[in-house]
Amino acid sequence: MLDVVIRGAGPVGCALALALRNSGLRIALVEQASTAPGFRPIALSYASRLILERLGAWAGLAVSPIERIVVSQAGSFGRTRLDAADAGVPALGYVTDYAALLAQLRAQVETTTAAAPARCIVHAEGAPQGSDGKRYAQDAVVALLHAAPPSTATAFERFTPEGPLALLPLAGRYALIWSMRPERAERLVAAPEDEFLSALNTMAGVAIGRGTRVEKRAVQPLALKVRGARVEGNEVYIGNAAQTLHPVAGQGLNLGLRDAWELARALGAAADPGSSATLARFAAQRRLDAGATIRVTDFLAAGIAGDNAFLRTARGAALTALDLFPPTRRFFARRMIFGAAALP
Question: 3-state class of 233 per DSSP?
Fold first, then answer.
């Protein structure tokens, strides 16, 4: 019997397998049937970089650093800027494509398609089951945007009447993640390029300059799903299998990588990786980080969404206050980078 079977060979499952490779545990990484992902931009936090470096999976990964984030709202006052220097890190994050990250990790692990009995079973792929969760009144338009001037190391997060709009620097272009009503998302994805760019340039404002070309447009449904129990018997759930989040602030994969890192530490130190005591301790250790990240993401996605005068004023006041108080900006930035427990 194996010690650990990891079901799901996405980035989180691969990261767990790499973190356990010198533990002495007998493991298997099971690749589930899946389709090849299209363009899917990923924002890795500086903490995720540290994890990937420790796993030997960072060098050679093509990334674009985010040295600052400008946050604003369309059609009203309020603006703040988060800088890497304020947070005490060389970069707030790094942007890459999901496929590139997955290829980097897959190159260092062996996978199988046959599951085997194990003392501990880790679910690291798929959305949480057994809960309807929350379906946001938004879908995300994801695309690759060319702009004039080209992107540098600044990311833009803009609150719009329909939902957040993120523009992340990616090799001189921008990865676009634009939340809006589902019916409008479908229309814009199918619209002529000039119509799409006109709508985007109007909503994004002048900060990025001007979008000139767009490619790889797709629609991503948005929902919040959280598994009620992270551990059941000798089975444990991490990453998207434990929590699926709205992409605002780019926390989903980063939270999943922290799940994998902490689970590897727990399993590697245990006499029995499938014991209830071992898995219960892991679940308790992850409760604060996961719970806080889920609440913050949900609040940013839905709690301050809307276009009434009260919400516009509240958003503007919050952004202005954040801009006026550097310690608050530093705390918020480091919370988004390292999680509630400032890990790793």
Answer: coil
Domain 2-131+224-338 fold: FAD/NAD(P)-binding domain (3.50.50)
Of all helices (H) and strands (E), which one includes residue 308?
none
Whether 75 has a pLDDT exceeding 80, the answer reads no
Task: Give Cβ neighbours of residue 25 (< 8 Å, ≥ 6 apart).
Answer: 3, 4, 267, 268, 273
Q: Which amino acid is at 274?
A: G
For the chain, the average pLDDT equals 90
Amino acid 2: pLDDT: 96
pLDDT tens for each residue of 39-54: 999 999 999 999 999 9
* Stretch 314-327: mean pLDDT: 71
**Residue 342's pLDDT is what?**
46
Return d(Cα 229, Cα 245) in angstroms, integer: 16
CA angle, 25 then 46 then 295, to 5°: 85
Rounded CA gap, 89 and 91, in Å? 5
What DSSP designation does 239 have? G
Q: What is the pLDDT of residues 89-105, one digit of tens each?
A: 999 999 999 999 999 99
Q: CA 322 → CA 78, 286, 296, 325, distances in Å?
A: 10, 28, 15, 6
Contact 91, 337 (CB under 8 A): no
Are the C-beta atoms of residues 119 and 270 closer than 8 Å to each other?
A: no
3-state class (DSSP) for residue 154: strand
Q: Are 342 and 334 in contact (CB under 8 A)?
A: yes
On whether the CB atoms of residues 42 and 305 are closer than 8 A, the answer is no
pTM for the model stands at 0.91
Domain ranges of the chain: 2-131+224-338
Q: List, as one string, the DSSP characters of 250-306.
A: G-HHHHHHHHHHHHHHHHHT-SSTT-HHHHHHHHHHHHHHHHHHHHHHHIIIIIT--
Token pair in block for residue 339 = 């999680």
In single-letter form, the type of residue at position 225 comes to: K
Q: Say if residues 137 and 181 touch (Cβ distance below 8 Å).
A: yes
